[in-house]
Model the fold of this input.
Amino acid sequence: MLVTRLIERKRDGGRLEPAEWNALIRSYVAGDVPDYQMAAMLMAVYLQGLDRIETAALTDAMRRSGAQLSLGHLASARIDKHSTGGVGDKTSLILAPLIASLGVTVPMMSGRGLGHTGGTLDKLESIPGMRTDLTLAAAREQVERIGCVLIGQTTEVAPADRRMYPLRDATATIESVPLIASSIMSKKLAEDLTGLVLDIKRGAGSFLRDLDQSLDLAGAMVALGEAHGCEVVALLTAMDRPLGRAVGNALEVEEAIHALQGEGPPDLMAVTFALGAEMLQLGGVAADGDEARRQMERAISSGAASRKFQAIIEAQGGNPGVVDDPAVLPQAGACELFEAPRRGFVARVEPRPVGRALVALGGGRARPDDRLDPAVGFVITAKPGDWVERGEPVATIFARDESGVEAGRAALRGAIVIADEADHPLPLVSHRVTMDGVTRTAVDA
Amino acid sequence: MLVTRLIERKRDGGRLEPAEWNALIRSYVAGDVPDYQMAAMLMAVYLQGLDRIETAALTDAMRRSGAQLSLGHLASARIDKHSTGGVGDKTSLILAPLIASLGVTVPMMSGRGLGHTGGTLDKLESIPGMRTDLTLAAAREQVERIGCVLIGQTTEVAPADRRMYPLRDATATIESVPLIASSIMSKKLAEDLTGLVLDIKRGAGSFLRDLDQSLDLAGAMVALGEAHGCEVVALLTAMDRPLGRAVGNALEVEEAIHALQGEGPPDLMAVTFALGAEMLQLGGVAADGDEARRQMERAISSGAASRKFQAIIEAQGGNPGVVDDPAVLPQAGACELFEAPRRGFVARVEPRPVGRALVALGGGRARPDDRLDPAVGFVITAKPGDWVERGEPVATIFARDESGVEAGRAALRGAIVIADEADHPLPLVSHRVTMDGVTRTAVDA
Done:
């Protein structure tokens, strides 16, 4: 295979055959194709695109570059949920135990936070003792035993993606719909799923530019799933403000535990239930959204969902006592209320400044190898549309020390915009994308 | 400087400031920007283009990445000639001594052959003892003494181009007008020229796709010269057949010597004189083309041009006896006439198959580090438009052995197309491009 010829063809807007994608990815992982050739190919793909057959072939080649979970022997459906990343998004922490407690197997492979977005692994690891670096064999054993596992992308899974992702980051080729879709789906398909629910974020805190790009990505992922025998449903959800109230690793675990006990904030529960309803329907245990909703509420009120979370934590070495007493989580050294600087409507709560402020406090990553302080963050109780009086507490800042509190206060002053008139936030869930097409919805809290 | 941001801007069709090009190239040469980031940038440039200000800034940054000849103290004009590469093109070997013998300084830096195209350095090195790897200091001393030097791109000159060229080759980013223009001009401007004549090849043997791209490149190079105080004139010349009769390193030196003695084939002399007339006018020693032509004919008939070639060869360690007796050049082990397989008109002599056949015989390079056999090649006497009888000799094959002769014969059978009707070859010189615009010409032998 002459790699230069393949780059040339893509550069000129042509297409590569599935066997060519497979050979390219295989040679890349074997070290026979250097990073500079892959970088040129990625830029050509960014600018010239991939059609759906090429995207499916690239995804398949990336998936087959590594090991895969093998769960076909299980009787139950295997359903995962994936989000494109946001601020305050702890739905995975709630959904994994909640849906598993209803008899659907949830083999969930998650990522770490980077930049302004958080990551499920980082949140989980704020639970004392909790391990997420299980081997595929251990993950499989846990799935068989308790129906759920929460792990990171091991070195065994999709090594092509593990090498390509940092290369894309360094070469400005991240924001390409076929490259995003193939990166996500190569890992998700390695979980041997029967169905996948995608949470595609929209708005200022999302890394997608606009609604069209979000719908494009949703369509590409649904088609990719279809091509590989995994039914995919995508929901477009609001990331024009943080989801829920807590932003910060341990703080979000605490909020997720409250949610599993029926005490979650309305916006978080609305998005969680919308995603969960899709998971339960894909899993074949609920016939429609209403039935799914009733099942989830029952699993919460009965304590089944909380007990499943305890079982998962215990199985992965964590302290299951956290579910009854979140105070076992790491605690911030300094905390302080943040008060509204004027009266008026909360016009906006800007997710990017909040996410970046978390990084500045030590609770997020500017670089992939940064270490985290799990205790720091924010609990922002004010929501867009709320009326607040001057001096009324609208948030709490959790920091390591007084200087962190000061930095957090400065960040919130910019992020929480209070004005004479309310703004128009996005609907919490605005679109649903399946193989049948796009349906507009308007789920709100 | 965040390189990813620069790549991103070019990817999105934006422009980089001169200081940004300079910082990028400087960091690349220093090893702070890895090849994979440069590869992504090159592909973005290939697909999004560079405007003239950016092309000038990139060229300048590449030129300033290394050392430069400093010839400003000389009273005479410094004029070089550069060709985009072809088959059988030995005009540099003739023009350097010819123009230098007329009082114009010619500091000529040339390249090696690659693929189907030959290189001046390879041809020169077929002269026993001849060295082309002079330092800039030695080149400068020789220029001062005899008005001409024929060297390769030393490691001192434009190291950015030395690293970027193989990277472009591996990433399918060669055929970009601004990248070609900046690569050539960064080296030519390092020669401290007052003027430059460009020979831009057209037709099947050229690596440019079509007339538009050739004119684009000519325009870009003329503008680049203007931006750096070096007057550039570009001629578009025919490469739809080999130039002259000889193709092969020693064979071409021999043909060049004959040309310097007034015995060159008409097509070769027509192109040589057209380029030389531009050099003499840029050099200020001829007022117009007719005067330049008379001067060149006189330098040939008086022996001044041949003597200058001898002086150059001697100064660079070569055997100057080659000019009086070309038999001192390496001789092929086997040689055989090639006869016309049928009667008819010579419709075409395809340059690429001829150039590739030379590579197959060992006289050219498939890879940059291939070693050459200087003696092998072809002398093709038939020209498009000639009438030939079946069995009439139309070429001579020079090979290492009988199997080489057989390979050469097979190649010529495909390359020399004889038909019932003559084809329409391109005019030898079809366009002249200066700052004043494009003029159509129709120079033929």
